[in-house]
Structure formats: structure tokens, C-alpha cells
Amino acid sequence: MQDLPFTRFLAANGQLASDAPAWSAESQPLQQLYRQMVLTRLFDQKIVALQRTGRIGTFAPALGQEAIGVAIGSRMQAEDVFVPYYRDSAAQLMRGVSMEEILLYWGGDERGSDYRAASAVQDFPVCVPIATQALHACGVATAFRIRGEHRVAVTTCGDGATSKGDFLEALNVAGAWQLPVVFVINNNQWAISVPRRIQCAAPTLAQKALGAGIPGEQVDGNDVIAVCERLDAALQRARQGKGPTLLECLTYRLGDHTTADDASRYRSEEEVRQAWREEPIVRLRTLLAGRGDWDEAREQALVADAQLRLQQAVERFEAIAPRAPEALFEHVYASWPQALAEQRETLLERLRRQATQGVAHD
Amino acid sequence: MTERSYSLLEAVNLALHRAMHDDPNVVLLGEDIGVNGGVFRATLGLREAFGLKRVMDTPLAENMIAGLSIGMAAQGLRPVMEIQFLGFIYAAMEQLVSHASRLRNRTCGRLSCPLVVRAPMGAGIRAPEHHSESVEALFAHIPGLRVVVPSSPARAYGLLLGAIDDPDPVIFLEPTRLYRMNPQPLIDDGRRLPLDSCFTLREGSDLTLISWGGALVETLQAAERLAERGIAAEVIDLASIKPLDLQTLEASARKTGRVVIVQEAPVSGGIAADICAALYERVWFELQAPIMRVCAPDIPPPLYRLEPLYMPEVGEILAACERVLDFG
């Protein structure tokens, strides 16, 4: 089999290849990507800290994978639809999902998926069942095609998800119908404790696209310039009606699968240390600093500003009271069926009884 | 408006024509539904009338059909997806249970899932293995779904239009045994039937017979035989499996004091059990006799040589009625 394309412009040592895209020669776009990647990492660390102190539930950090989400967020148009998996706060923040919404979701409140920003209002919520979201993206793309709209559905998944039928069924129908959809595999090498090499015998995950008759390629997922560039090409293809693309972004999950996981049970410290040498933020900072476009003062200002925004978001999140008990019934159906009215009454009656007896319902 | 006779199958087709004509957001997808018009011909002529974009022959993957429908529904379309036989729906369960049923709730109403799953259900047509299932109870258990089973051409027409209009996912199960039985006059007036109401097919004061789908054939025959002996059975077509119209069921049980439930599906964990429990909770002191269930045993639908033994049978229903009538 012919080798699939692999794209990298920015090496781990911060060296930019001579064939890098023209826009990467400019300071502004790279600084913006850098700022967003740092913000994402600090947000991630903040949520993990909140979880460790019991102020938020289980969370899936994106440590080490910031470049992929930030590239997605920076390249999609507002009118496109994002169909994420559960390790996608980087892209979600850029789609306009607020920090409080992300905190609310992981903090156990459905309102965290009720995105208010116009650019995110049609985006899907975080998807927990593996790979199922790939099909939703194809459905969204089918709707675009039926209505003749030049919009694109972008969906993400992890390396483990490529083993599931949903993923392969999605590639298949996207190819058969030439749907305006972009599949991004966030290949972070680990599906909880199962490493990439025993997930699948194929040398690349991108080649799964070939069986569906669509282009597949690999990108260095820690090189934000390469991910942006290949996403641009895939988005343009889709928008022009030329069909879907599969991008396998190679990265590494530097953190645990979730805050409930302990990755030291199944992988070596040496492997993780090596992966830290490849991570996406340092290499971009090295490039920017080498060009005189970044320095310690700017770094400190960025971090201080981010910490302030995070702190304010956490305060707003913590000030939001839990939903009223009636809310449990509010959105199960468009309106709670009269035929089930008794069930709702039973719960509300229990609460009234407890209130008169002075028992808190939580 | 012309009135002619339609079979249940033709009524489904008529409702699909009407819905697609009235609402450009209604789209159909499934295996063999376009060029071929569906293996039962339920979607005949729709591709010709509404085009390739709105009547989609899909690749062969039930789970994909469901997942795609969810994405389309979230975008404001009203997909009516066909699963070729109910026995093939299990592949689509994760999409229907984990996503279709709860997209609205997960997003506090920001996104919703107004899709309809159409699937032929039930035994009695000498079909091959895996083509005779009645698994309505699996879906009734899932919050956020509605489950509807029509049992006449008029109810198929009105309920399907109601299901397509409904803002939430509806599992619409069509009894294959009734597809071509007893055509009835039908006016294509676009009238919707409510999705959460029973239909009283026959009034009576001596006992209540509750059934749905194909089993109503034998249930009505049993009521007729009872009538010949001067016993007036009330026959209720459940129609809405989820939610249950307990108000109607309760009123009838209160009136007659004697109830027999006829269910084609295996007995354990079935809808008949749910109805029993709900009625005991509500009308215990007005019941004159224990509620009886006539259901299939807990066996898979057999291949067709022994299929009749699996189906509800008039004699068996009458025997249950005898026991209930003889009590007290």
C-alpha cells in the first residue's frame, strides 16, 4: 500500500520547515493560537484542581492535545457545526462555549450543554458513548446537503473510537454520499489503558478512510500550524462539495484518561517523559521567542490574565444554584405527557412533605 | 376529497405522502425504501414524488440510519427512518437509547430529536428467522421515547401523521400481519390522532379486553364469540404503548371489574405486566377477579412451522375470559 501523506511543519525543537505555509511567517496568527493553547492548558489544570478538591466531578483533561482543539476552533466557520467527543474543551471554548458552561457540565448540571453563544448553538454537546457522534456529524452534513448549504460538520474522536462500528459506518456513508464532513482523530496513543499498537493492526488509523473511498492523512497533532493547514484543506474540500476527509492527528495524552484514572498503572514514566519533549506549546513558544515575538514578560502577562479570567469563571459557576426539582421533567419531552403527570406529582409531593418535615432533599 | 379503501400498509404510504407534501422538512431514509419502495412497499412512489434528496436509500447499517437521523433531526429536519424488520433494530439501540431519547434533556431543549422510527413488527406471516419480533417493551422502558402501534388503516394514518408532527422521537411499529388485512375507507384529510390515547373499539360492561397490534384480531374475535353468548366485552386498542393512557384503562376496569390483557410478545417484562401493575394500584377494590394475561411464553418466535403455537389464539383468550368471569 502506498504511504499516506504525513504533514509536519514545526518540529519539536521549534524549527519551522521551509515549506511551511505563508501565514505562519506572520506573528499575529501564531500568537493568537499560542495564547489560546495556553488558556486551554490553564483551564484544564484549573478544572483538575477543582476536581481534586471536590468542587467538580470527574473530568477528562486535554493536557498535551491543545493544538488539535485550538486548530479546529480557529479554522471552523461560525456557521459550521462541531460534533465533539469528551476531550474537546479547547475547540469548544473557541466555538463560543463559555467556561461556566464547561464547568457546569463537568460539575453535574445539564445547563452546561445549553450553549448560549450563536456560534455554538447548533453544536452537539460532549459525546460520552464512544464514536457514536461520528454518525451525528454525518446526519448534520446530510441536512446541509439536502438544504444546499455550504456548511461543514466537524467531528472528533480518540484512537480507541476508530475500532467501533459507528466510526466505520460514518466513514462509509460519508464516502458513499460525499458528505461535507471532516473527521478528526485525536490519536493520543492511549484508549484508557490500551495502547495504540494493540488497538488495531493497521499501521495508521488514517488508512481506514481508504476502505470508505475517502482521503485519509496523518498530521503531527502537536504542530498547530500543520493541523490548521490540513484542516483548512479538508474544510475547503467539504465546503466546495468535494466530500469528506479523515485527519489522523498524532499526539500524546500527557494526563490521565480522566481524573478517575491513574495512568501510572499501565505506562512507563520514561514514555511520558519522552512525550513531554514533543508537546505542542513549548515548540510554538520556542519558534515565537526565536523570532523575537515572545518573551517572559508577555508570558507572565498572558498567564496572569488567563488566571484572572479562570478565577472569575469559577466564581460565576459556583454562584449558580442547582436547578429546581421540576427541571428534571422539563426537557425529557417537549412537554411532560399528561399521561405521566402522576410520576411528576409523586416526586414533587415527596419534596413538599420533606420541606414541611424540614428534611433537605439533597 | 375522494374516499377509497386503504389497507394499513396503504394508509402508511398515504400518510407519508401527506406529511412530505405538507412539510418540506420531512425526509425518509432506510434500506431499499427508494427505488424499491420498501420491502413491503410502504414507501412506494415517494421517491418519484419527492426526489432523491428527500427519500434516501442508505447503506446497509441500521445503527448508521439511526445516528444519521439524529444528526438530521438536530438540524431541524423531521426524518422518518425505516428499519426493515424490528428484529434488526438491536444494532441501532445505542443511538436510539443513548442519544435520540435524551438529546433534548441533555441540552435543556437547545437541541431536539423529532424523528420517527418505522419498523414492521410481529409474527404471523411465515417470515424467516428474526423477522417476527415484538419488542415494543424494550422501547417503552426508555424515558424520552414514545411508542405507538397502530392496528387499523385509519389509526395508522392518523397516528403516523401525529408521530411525524411530534417534537420528540417516536417508535412507530407496524404489525405486518395487519398490513394487507381488511382495507377500510379513509379520507386523506391530514387529521392527526393523539399519541397518548387508547381507542375503545367495542363497548361493553361485563369485562375489559386490552390488546394492541396484530393480537387485536383474535381479541376482537373472542369478543364476538362472547357477544354470541350475551356477554358484552369492552375491547380497547392500547395504541400508545408509551405513555400508557391509564385514565381510559382505569375507567374501563372500574366499569367492568374484570380485565384480560392479550399480548403477542413473551410474557416476562412485557407491557401486559405494566398494565396489570398500574391497574392493581388504582382499582384493586373495584376488581371482581384477578387480571389475566394471555401472552406468548418466554421463547423466541419459532420458525414458521410452529408459529401458530406462539401466536395468541381465540380459544386461549376465551379460556382466560371464562376464568375472569367465573370468579366471585
Q: What is the tally of helical segments of chain B?
A: 12
The CATH topology of the largest domain in chain A: Rossmann fold
Task: Please give the CATH class of the largest domain in chain B.
Answer: Alpha Beta
First and last CA, distance of chain A? 60 Å
Which CATH top level class of the largest domain in chain A fits?
Answer: Alpha Beta
Largest sheet of chain B, in brief, is: 7 strands, mixed
Q: What's the overall geometry of chain A?
A: globular
The total tally of domains of chain B equals 2
Give me the count of strands of chain B.
14
Mean pLDDT of chain B: 97
Query: What is the correct CATH architecture of the largest domain in chain B?
Result: 3-Layer(aba) Sandwich
List low-pLDDT spans of chain B: none
> What is the averaged pLDDT score of chain A?
96
Topology summary:
The complex is a heterodimer of chains A (362) and B (328).
Chain A: E1 6-7, H1 27-52, H2 66-75, E2 81-83, H3 89-95, H4 99-106, H5 132-147, E3 153-158, H6 165-176, E4 181-187, E5 190-191, E6 194-195, H7 196-199, E7 216-220, H8 224-239, E8 245-250, H9 269-276, H10 280-290, H11 296-319, H12 327-330, H13 341-356
Parallel strand pairs in A: 1-7, 2-3, 3-4, 4-8, 7-8
Antiparallel strand pairs in A: 5-6
Chain B: E1 3-6, H1 8-22, E2 26-30, H2 46-50, E3 55-57, H3 62-74, E4 78-82, H4 93-100, H5 103-106, E5 116-121, H6 136-140, E6 146-148, H7 153-165, E7 170-175, E8 184-187, E9 199-202, E10 207-211, H8 216-228, E11 233-237, E12 240-242, H9 246-256, E13 259-266, H10 271-283, E14 292-296, H11 307-310, H12 314-326
Keywords (chain B): Oxidoreductase, Thiamine pyrophosphate
GO molecular function (chain B): oxidoreductase activity
InterPro entries (chain B): THDP-binding (IPR029061), Transketo_C/PFOR_II (IPR009014), Transketolase-like_Pyr-bd (IPR005475), Transketolase_C (IPR033248)
